[in-house]
C-alpha cells in the first residue's frame, strides 16, 4: 500500500503531482534542488487550492488538511520512509540518471521509482538502479490537477506488481490510466509533438501568423487550445528535448526539431514559465 510519496522536482509538473497526491490522502514530500523552486511550487498549490475553495469544489478544512500532508525538502536525506518516488526534474537523460542512482541508495527496498518523463527511455533510466523491476513511467499531463490522463510506461524489466501498484494509485488519484510501451515519446507525445513542431515550421516559413495558426486548429479542428499556445504552456525547452528524443530514437528526419524552436530556447524564450514564448506573458509589458 502506497502511503508516502516523494516528488522530486517542484516545477510546474512536480507541484501539480504533489497536489493531487496530497488531495488523495497521501503523505507527500516535495523536493527540489532550490528552496525558491520549492516555495514557488507551494505557492502555486496554495493558489489552485484557494481557487477550488472559492468555487465550492473543496472546503477550507480540506484545503488545510491537504496542505498539512505536504512537507518539503531541498535534499534527499529525508526520503528514507517513502513507498514511492515520482521524479519530475528537467527532461534530460543524464540528470534523471543521476537522480535515480542517488535515490536507489536512499529509499527503502520496497519503494517504487517512477518517472514523469515525457519521452525518455524507462529501460535506460531503470538500468542505473539495482531495482529495474521497480522502475516505471508515470506520465501525468499538464496541468496535473485538471487533466485526467496518466500514461503508464513499462520498461523492459518492470514487474507486473509494479505496474499494478501504479495503475491502482492512478485510479486512487481520480485519474484514468493508459498503458504504453517503452518507445520514444510513448503514445501522447509521439503524436502531439510532431504537430506542435509542424506548427512552429509554419511560423518559421511565414505561412501564417501565430494567432491564425492557433485559430485554424481551434476552430477548424475543434482543439481546445492552439498548438503554439499549448507549446508555450508545456515549455519550449521541454518541447525541444522531446523532439530531440524522437529524432534520435527513430533516426527519422520527419522528427527534426524546427530551427525556430531551437532559437527560441537559446534565447531563453521558454513559453509561459519564462514570460515569453510564441506569446508574451510578461505582466510588466502586457
Ligand atoms: P520545470 O522546468 O517546470 O521543473 C523542473 C524542476 O526540476 C525545476 O524546479 C528544477 O529546479 C528541478 N530540478 C532539476 N534538477 C533537479 C534535481 N537534480 N533534483 C531536484 N530537482 C531538480 O519542468 P516541468 O515542466 O515540470 O517538467 C518536469 C518533467 O515533467 C520533465 O521530465 C518533463 O518532460 C515532464 N513533463 C512535462 C510536461 C509539461 O507540460 N511541461 C507534461 C508531462 C511531463
UniProtKB/TrEMBL annotation:
Domain spans labelled 3-hydroxyacyl-CoA dehydrogenase NAD binding: 4-182
Pfam families registered for this protein in UniProt: 3HCDH, 3HCDH_N
Pathway: Lipid metabolism; butanoate metabolism
Domain 3-hydroxyacyl-CoA dehydrogenase C-terminal: 185-281
PANTHER family xref list: 3-HYDROXYACYL-COA DEHYDROGENASE FAMILY PROTEIN (PTHR48075), 3-HYDROXYBUTYRYL-COA DEHYDROGENASE (PTHR48075:SF5)
Keywords, comma-separated and alphabetical: Oxidoreductase
Protein name: 3-hydroxybutyryl-CoA dehydrogenase
EC assignment: 1.1.1.157
Native source organism of the sequence: Oceanobacillus kapialis
Keyword Oxidoreductase among record annotations: yes
GO molecular function: 3-hydroxybutyryl-CoA dehydrogenase activity
EC class of the enzyme, as a word: oxidoreductase
Keyword Nucleotide-binding: no
Family membership: Belongs to the 3-hydroxyacyl-CoA dehydrogenase family.
Amino acid at each position: 500500500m502506497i502511503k508516502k510519496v516523494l516528488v522530486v522536482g517542484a516545477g510546474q509538473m512536480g507541484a501539480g503531482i504533489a497536489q493531487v497526491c496530497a488531495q488523495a490522502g497521501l503523505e507527500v514530500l516535495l523536493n527540489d534542488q532550490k528552496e525558491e523552486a520549492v516555495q514557488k511550487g507551494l505557492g502555486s498549490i496554495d493558489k489552485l487550492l484557494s481557487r477550488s475553495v472559492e468555487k465550492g469544489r473543496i472546503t477550507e478544512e480540506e484545503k488545510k488538511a491537504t496542505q498539512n500532508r505536504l512537507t518539503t525538502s531541498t535534499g534527499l536525506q529525508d526520503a528514507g520512509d517513502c513507498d514511492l518516488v515520482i521524479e519530475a526534474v528537467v527532461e534530460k537523460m543524464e540528470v534523471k540518471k543521476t537522480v535515480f542512482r542517488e535515490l536507489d541508495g536512499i529509499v527503502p527496498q520496497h519503494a517504487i521509482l517512477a518517472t514523469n518523463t515525457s519521452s525518455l527511455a524507462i529501460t535506460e533510466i531503470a538500468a542505473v538502479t539495482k531495482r529495474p523491476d521497480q522502475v516505471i513511467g508515470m506520465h501525468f499531463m499538464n496541468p496535473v490537477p485538471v487533466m485526467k490522463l496518466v500514461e503508464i510506461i513499462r520498461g523492459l524489466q518492470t514487474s507486473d506488481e509494479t505496474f499494478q501498484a501504479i495503475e491502482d494509485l492512478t485510479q486512487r488519484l481520480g485519474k484514468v490510466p493508459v498503458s504504453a510501451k517503452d518507445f520514444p515519446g510513448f503514445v501522447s507525445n509521439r503524436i502531439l509533438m510532431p504537430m506542435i513542431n509542424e506548427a512552429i515550421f509554419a511560423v518559421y516559413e511565414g505561412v501564417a501568423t501565430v494567432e491564425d495558426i492557433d485559430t485554424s486548429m481551434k476552430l477548424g479542428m475543434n482543439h481546445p487550445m492552439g498548438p503554439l499556445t499549448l507549446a508555450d504552456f508545456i515549455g519550449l525547452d521541454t518541447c525541444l528535448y522531446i523532439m530531440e528524443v524522437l529524432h534520435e530514437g527513430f533516426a527519422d528526419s520527419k522528427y527534426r526539431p524546427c530551427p525556430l524552436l531551437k532559437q527560441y530556447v537559446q534565447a531563453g524564450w521558454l513559453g509561459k514559465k519564462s514570460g515569453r514564448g510564441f506569446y508574451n506573458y510578461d505582466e510588466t509589458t502586457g
